Amino acid sequence: MEINISQQGALQVVAISGEVDLSTSPKVREALLSCIKGAHGVVVDLSAVSYIDSSGVASLVEAFQTAKTKGLGFALAEVSETPMRVLKLARLDQVFVIYPRVDEAVAAMA
Amino acid sequence: MTDQTDPNPPTVIEVRDLVTHYGTRQILNGVDVDIVEGEIMVIMGGSGSGKSTFLRHLMALQRPTSGTIKILGQDVWRLPQKKLFELRKKLGVTFQGGALFSSMTVGENIMLPLYEHTKLDRMTMEIMARMKLEVVDLAGFEDLMPSELSGGMIKRAAVARAVIMDPRILFFDEPSAGLDPVVSSQLDDLILRLRDAMGMTICVVTHELESAFKIADRITVLDRGNILFVGTVQELHDHPSERIQNLLNRRSEEAEIDADEYLRRLTGDKEEAEGMPR
Amino acid sequence: MAEGSNQSVAYRFFDKIGRMSTSALEEMGRHGVMIAESLYWLIIGPRMNQPVRLGAVFSEMMEIGVRAIGIIGIMAAAIGAMLAIQGIYSLKIFGAEGHVVVGVAFSMVREFAPLITGILVAGRSGSALSARLGTMKINQELDALEVMGINPVRFLVVPSLLASLIMVPVLTFMSMVLGLYAAALYVNAALGMSLAAFFDQTVDVLSVDDLTHGLGKAAIFGILIALIGVLNGFLVKGGAEGVGKATTRSVVQCISAIVVTDMLFALVATF
């Protein structure tokens, strides 16, 4: 699992790749929460995530809630099929702000 | 996670020549079963068919007399303890009565495996538990005690606990037992949803035909310790064997009566009655 | 066994005795295995990611020990006073009432404090352990632990065993103090001996040996109570009725084991 953080204007784009599971999700959580502290908004690029388990989704949920309480933007982008199924199971696809592409998310949130 | 459209999905549970006796009674006489990734396999049979014992073997709770069981490629009865613990994290089980710990709240029950096996943040664990409760339609029930729930709710909470670690394989022991048809059918829907969303392999032991036909990709029929049939629901319906058609039509079989043996049984001459435990 | 009716009474008698002794031996073996298994998980557990949780030990200590303080305190005080009353009554015959302190101190510290504590803990916690584990067994909760990759001995047995091993001696010490205090109050009222004089004499006659004798016994009682409670719970069969039977069995066995051990201990220690 790898996390790449890049700055796009006022937004931070967090690109996660590989498998997010019980052993790697704490790192995702940490990265997301620290990004929220220092940015105007966060876009999480999930295009390269091959597998995400519920601890990973839980980290996304926590980050989303934290961003919301601070009045920051938080969106998911390019959610591939496997993560999407996991989100749908808990009906989280209706909760998260999801964009089909990263640049769309950046444009919409800027 | 492998794609479900894989034409030859790998075998995740491989059972070979499984034999079990209780004293002189034969419970299983050489059972072979393969369960492949992503399928829902229903093990059916009447009471005394050996299906419950079979499930206990699969969950590595009870050692068979002989035979091998490989789960995810590992021979469960030849595994060192530490490896068995690791393997068990990839298995989830919903017991017949739910088996929630009565001294803990629903939320604590669901989080227990996380507590014991992971170093996740408390917040993450709580969110995960609540997510699973959402999935089983028990949102907001995390602070109740199991004794405050109905039978169907207990079972759904037990499912939430079974899937908390996102297991690869999920076992159900008699999911519809003690539930009314409506609740039971909701549970069947839940089983299907879990398979579709998480790509889990699911093994269900039941004697409910209706539920079996609804959820099964394949069905294994056990009868008196032998495998009578393995195949899809359609194949089961089309099967020519009279024994199976009787089973499907819920006709109990007229066993041939051995007059002498029957008389002895009725008069309680235990020593002579064959196979009776002392 | 078809010729069963022809067997002599003596044969059946000895047959029964034989069966009973083998099952008693088997049971003792099980206790041994349970101790060994508990030690194993206590020591090896952390290395297999199966550590014994301190929190569980504390909550068990609360249940076995702290919640029993009231009743054990009252009982110990009653026994202490009773010893003083009986002591003065019998010593009066020799005109030696002043020596009552010796008798009370020895019997309270060496015998009665561990015994009454052990019996009360057995009645409260030995039975509760059996009932709890028995219910967990028939509800498949033990199986559930197992399939979650949580060893039941590590998760349930070791905390109870440790808590009992720690709390029974602690409660016993409390019983000693309270029993002696109650005795001192009575002696003060009956003979006019001051509390200070009573405790001075007590400290004089008692040696460290007497204290370790009492507390050592208490530790053994603690282990016995937990083991018997746990094993009867694990061996429950056949639903709610089985749980009831196991609970009764566990109390009877605990108290018998305590009394017999007490006798053996006294025999060996005073030899």
From TrEMBL, chain A:
<dbReference type="Pfam" id="PF01740">
    <property type="entry name" value="STAS"/>
</dbReference>
<dbReference type="InterPro" id="IPR036513">
    <property type="entry name" value="STAS_dom_sf"/>
</dbReference>
<dbReference type="InterPro" id="IPR002645">
    <property type="entry name" value="STAS_dom"/>
</dbReference>
<protein>
    <recommendedName>
        <fullName>Anti-sigma factor antagonist</fullName>
    </recommendedName>
</protein>
<dbReference type="GO" id="GO:0043856">
    <property type="term" value="F:anti-sigma factor antagonist activity"/>
</dbReference>
<feature type="domain" description="STAS">
    <location>
        <begin position="1"/>
        <end position="109"/>
    </location>
</feature>
<comment type="similarity">
    <text>Belongs to the anti-sigma-factor antagonist family.</text>
</comment>
<dbReference type="InterPro" id="IPR003658">
    <property type="entry name" value="Anti-sigma_ant"/>
</dbReference>
TrEMBL record, chain B:
<dbReference type="InterPro" id="IPR017871">
    <property type="entry name" value="ABC_transporter-like_CS"/>
</dbReference>
<dbReference type="Pfam" id="PF00005">
    <property type="entry name" value="ABC_tran"/>
</dbReference>
<protein>
    <submittedName>
        <fullName>ABC transporter ATP-binding protein</fullName>
    </submittedName>
</protein>
<dbReference type="InterPro" id="IPR003593">
    <property type="entry name" value="AAA+_ATPase"/>
</dbReference>
<keyword id="KW-0067">ATP-binding</keyword>
<keyword id="KW-0813">Transport</keyword>
<dbReference type="GO" id="GO:0005524">
    <property type="term" value="F:ATP binding"/>
</dbReference>
<feature type="domain" description="ABC transporter">
    <location>
        <begin position="13"/>
        <end position="249"/>
    </location>
</feature>
<dbReference type="GO" id="GO:0016887">
    <property type="term" value="F:ATP hydrolysis activity"/>
</dbReference>
<dbReference type="InterPro" id="IPR003439">
    <property type="entry name" value="ABC_transporter-like_ATP-bd"/>
</dbReference>
<keyword id="KW-0547">Nucleotide-binding</keyword>
<dbReference type="InterPro" id="IPR027417">
    <property type="entry name" value="P-loop_NTPase"/>
</dbReference>
TrEMBL record, chain C:
<feature type="transmembrane region" description="Helical">
    <location>
        <begin position="68"/>
        <end position="91"/>
    </location>
</feature>
<protein>
    <submittedName>
        <fullName>ABC transporter</fullName>
    </submittedName>
</protein>
<keyword id="KW-0472">Membrane</keyword>
<dbReference type="InterPro" id="IPR030802">
    <property type="entry name" value="Permease_MalE"/>
</dbReference>
<dbReference type="GO" id="GO:0043190">
    <property type="term" value="C:ATP-binding cassette (ABC) transporter complex"/>
</dbReference>
<dbReference type="InterPro" id="IPR003453">
    <property type="entry name" value="ABC_MlaE_roteobac"/>
</dbReference>
<feature type="transmembrane region" description="Helical">
    <location>
        <begin position="219"/>
        <end position="238"/>
    </location>
</feature>
<dbReference type="GO" id="GO:0005548">
    <property type="term" value="F:phospholipid transporter activity"/>
</dbReference>
<keyword id="KW-1003">Cell membrane</keyword>
<keyword id="KW-1133">Transmembrane helix</keyword>
<dbReference type="Pfam" id="PF02405">
    <property type="entry name" value="MlaE"/>
</dbReference>
<comment type="similarity">
    <text>Belongs to the MlaE permease family.</text>
</comment>
<feature type="transmembrane region" description="Helical">
    <location>
        <begin position="178"/>
        <end position="199"/>
    </location>
</feature>
<comment type="function">
    <text>Could be part of an ABC transporter complex.</text>
</comment>
<feature type="transmembrane region" description="Helical">
    <location>
        <begin position="250"/>
        <end position="269"/>
    </location>
</feature>
